Amino acid sequence: MDKGAVVLCSGGVDSTTVLAIAQEQGYSLYSLSFCYGQRHKIELSAARKVAQAFNVARHLILDIDLGKIGGSALTENVEVPKDRSLNDIAGGIPTTYVPARNTIFLSYALAWAEVLNIYDIFIGVTAVDYSGYPDCRPEYIEAFETMANLATKTGVERRMIRINAPLIHLSKAQIIKKGRQMGVDYSLTHSCYDPTMDGKACGRCDSCKLRRKGFQEAGIVDPASYVYV
Amino acid sequence: MDKGAVVLCSGGVDSTTVLAIAQEQGYSLYSLSFCYGQRHKIELSAARKVAQAFNVARHLILDIDLGKIGGSALTENVEVPKDRSLNDIAGGIPTTYVPARNTIFLSYALAWAEVLNIYDIFIGVTAVDYSGYPDCRPEYIEAFETMANLATKTGVERRMIRINAPLIHLSKAQIIKKGRQMGVDYSLTHSCYDPTMDGKACGRCDSCKLRRKGFQEAGIVDPASYVYV
Predict the structure, then answer these.
(1) CB A89 within 8 A of CB A210
(2) Which of A141, A168, A201, B191 has the CB geometry, 3.0–4.6 Å to A192, for a possible disulfide?
(3) Which fold has domain B4-218?
């Protein structure tokens, strides 16, 4: 029987690189994306293109209700911070933090994995260029894995569920280099938190800044098109 | 400042008793329910009535997409098991198990608690009459709490998030007795997995059987109306 993996996919650089890694490791891919009231819904069409490019076994997009809970510049009508220095980006938890987002995403991945009879979940978090989000740290991923194995039928039957975070110790530049070595086409990806109506990246939000710095340090041309160059 | 608690509310006996406990402990109540494609949606109107009776600060009902993930008799067009013996009910994981359901519910509760600046979450799981669900055991609740404190801004700032499961060591009869001592009106609650169109309980699913046994053992008349007596 072939082994499957549920991969959380935002349509961005990190999760797209993770798809390539999981595919290289021989997994058949079940990609999972969320429509969660994010203002950058365009990432979902990027996620669709990426899923197609990787010829995934299935791509599931779930509608979830994070907007009703509120608390983030990504889901509310609050200004997305712009032009922050890379020091500031690394320094604290920004307003774009969505409360418990990765926990909610991983919980759904866990549910889907259980239904599919799959034991591996992949997530593209990195603790290096991690924009100050607490749910991107290795100790968090480990704690989620422990909980997942107690939460589920799969866990009870003593099959180990693994939360794989293969980028966790990589910088954005290292991620991009690794992806390019595996032939990832980053022109399909989208990173900006505050894109224009026609899908151009702002170039100034934290996500754009981290992406641009990553490509620059990797010495690779960023295929994204930016409003602010 | 008054202390608040997010309480997961299904409109059933257990979570309604938990509301009473949290209220008695002086919390202001934020009740959280889910429309998750369950065939027994009528529980949501019970949850509304219960929330009103407790005069909660806010009752949030989130629409979530568990049906698309599938895997349970509660969300799919699969027969709900009936007339199982209490031994069978205690014995294994039934088809009404919804993969990772409590994990998903608690994750949303965590997100909402963070937004509300609240550190306490209450859930009405019991490991005694627990119908064989793995995510009702104390070790699961503890693991979720550990993870929650690593996942969140609140955790990072060293305020302890607590997952309170005050019923975890109580039988259904003990829960009902406790609730009645606190004046809980169980006529507002709904437990059946497979109710009739006009809201009558089937009397034969696992949830009905556990409820009926609980009231019987507690020596209290069950106010629910059953098709099958």
Answers:
(1) yes
(2) A201
(3) Rossmann fold (3.40.50)
- Are B30 and B56 in contact by the 8 Å Cβ rule? The answer is yes
Model-level pTM? 0.90
Nearest to A62 among B68, B100, B137 (CB): B68
Structure tokens at A111: 């549910």
pLDDT in tens, A6-25: 999 999 999 999 999 999 99
SS3 A69: helix
Nearest CB partner across the interface for A60, out of B68, B144, B150: B68
CB within 8 Å: A99 and B115 = yes
Q: Domain limits of chain A? A: 4-218
Spacing of C-alpha B24 from chain mean position: 18
Q: What is the DSSP string of A123-183?
A: ----SSS-TT-GGGSHHHHHHHHHHHHHHSHHHHTTPPPEEE-TTTT--HHHHHHHHHHTT
Considering chain B, what is the average pLDDT of its residues?
88
Task: Please indicate whether, in this complex, the C-beta atoms of A147 and B103 are within 8 angstroms of each other.
Answer: yes
- Taking one residue from A and the other from B, the number of pairs with CB-CB distance under 8 angstroms is 141
> What is the spatial distance between Cα B31 and Cα B225, in angstroms, rounded to a whole number?
25
Contact B118, B5 (CB under 8 A): yes
Q: Do B147 and A146 touch (CB under 8 A)?
A: yes
Q: Does A100 touch chain B (CB under 8 A)?
A: yes
Beta strands in chain A (DSSP E): 4-8, 28-35, 58-63, 120-122, 162-164
Helix (H, G, I), strand (E, B) or coil at A32: strand
Q: How far is CA B189 from CA A162, B10, B48, B197, in A?
A: 38, 9, 10, 16
DSSP 8-state symbol, B78: S
Q: Which of B68, B107, B150 sits opposite A104 (nearest CB)?
A: B107
Written as six digits, the tokens of B26 are: 């002086």
Q: Which residues contact A138 (CB under 8 A, 6 or more apart)?
A: A127, A165, A168, A169
Q: Does A65 touch chain B (CB under 8 A)?
A: yes
pLDDT tens-digit map of A104-135? 999 999 999 988 989 999 999 988 765 567 88
